[in-house]
Amino acid sequence: MAEPLQATTERTAVPAFDLVIFGANGDLAMRKLFVALAARDREGVLPPESRIIGVVRQKAQLKTLPETIAARLHESGFDKDEIKRFMGRIVVAETDATKLETYEALKHALGKAERVRAFYLSTPPDLFIPIVENLGKSGLAVGDARVIIEKPIGRDLTSARAINDALAKVFTEKRTYRIDHYLGKETVQNLMVMRFANTLFERSLSSRDVDHVQITAAETVGLESRAGYYDGVGALRDMIQNHVMQLLCLFAMEPPNTLDAEAVRDEKLRVLKALKPIAGGEVQRQTVRGQYSAGSIDGKPVRGYTEELGRASNTETFVALRCEIENWRWAGVPFYLRTGKRLAARYSEIDVTFKQVPFSIFRSADGHDPLQPDRLIIRLQPNEGVQFQMMMKVPGSGRLKLVPRMLDLRYAEAFNERTPDAYERLLTDVIRGDQTLFMSRHEVEAAWRFVDPILDAWRQASDVLPRYAAGSFGPSHAFGLIERDGRSWVDPDLPA
Ligand code: BG6
Predict the structure, then answer these.
(1) Contact indicator for 324, 330 with CB cutoff of 8 Å
(2) Atom 13 in ligand 1: which residue has the minimum CA distance?
């Protein structure tokens, strides 16, 4: 069989680098960052002289950090040689992020090497500003040094601006990388390819043919060990303001004229700016929040949110909202966004329901019409793939019978490739200097501008936060939100 034609966009080699990780002992670094870097090292992508400098606060950690990293890599399936090679890149520096005088140790570790320098602030967000200020004062943010931060970037527009302003004093926007790890997911990157490398769907993805769009990011996990971060933050800030709104942007944006970061980010920003605000009395009508109570998932009993937390809380763990994009392409098409913890299944997908045909010739004499609308289902995780539901004739010579059937493209069957973790791509993109998959300051702030009035209205609302049983699909109001428009949530395609 002939080799398939490959369309590739040019990727430059990764230059030699020093990547400094603040919070090297933390959850994100241990769960994701070191494993992702080691995976890239295994592929031979990291230049030999590149180093990863883990910042720790206590002397004792100078020794324990490398041991912990090596154990973590072992757990993740790396072999002895791979671990040994990767550990050869690890340097540990004892620096207290908030104490300028301790940055000498980091300075010493970095030396004078002429390499791309990047600082990953894998720390609680209240350390972002002090670290950036100290990097500036200590003279470490030299040349084209970059900074990487991850959400939450603020709790609202004002605090996000304060972080962005502090970053801007030390790093230009071109040297600032704001991670939304959803943008590093393979299937999310494929959204742009699906839309702009194919004629068929792109033409139909507009108010001309689309009835409505649903974007769901459902999780089965609960609070886990993240109470310190999550309580008081909630699902709107944790998932909608960033991941779900980024999906919305990629799905709804106009074709950028190049794949350059600026072109792509400008188009995404236009979507955010075109969102019809939901404020005041509209918040009650267009949004639903909820918090999980005890229930069961996969047949196992699970505790409610406040029981896990050990105290009362008004933090929402579920949000559904209906929004509209006020531009030529999408005017009048409702977008229903939904996310929640401790739901019945873990899946993220974009479901597009097309309009019915203008006139059905298949209607029977008694008025019954067998036609169901076409549906495009873009499954982002798990069971990544794309499905298209269309009407088909059931084979047979008797009465004409129509049923909906799926065209079903599964990544696992279509490609024989390993799906890399989002961070593998994102970390080397920083070193290469490619900002396409990172959020700009304007995007982050525009997303807060949309979210803030909803938070304000919720804060002022006197109603009790609705509960939903863990293992369900959210509070009953969420069904009401879409059903009052004569529509319903698409049931997920759960594995049998
Ligand atoms: C994080 C949120 O950004 O994304 C978590 O803080 C959430 O609350 C996670 O669980 C979901 O990511 P993924 O990749 O598992 O869909």
Answers:
(1) yes
(2) 182
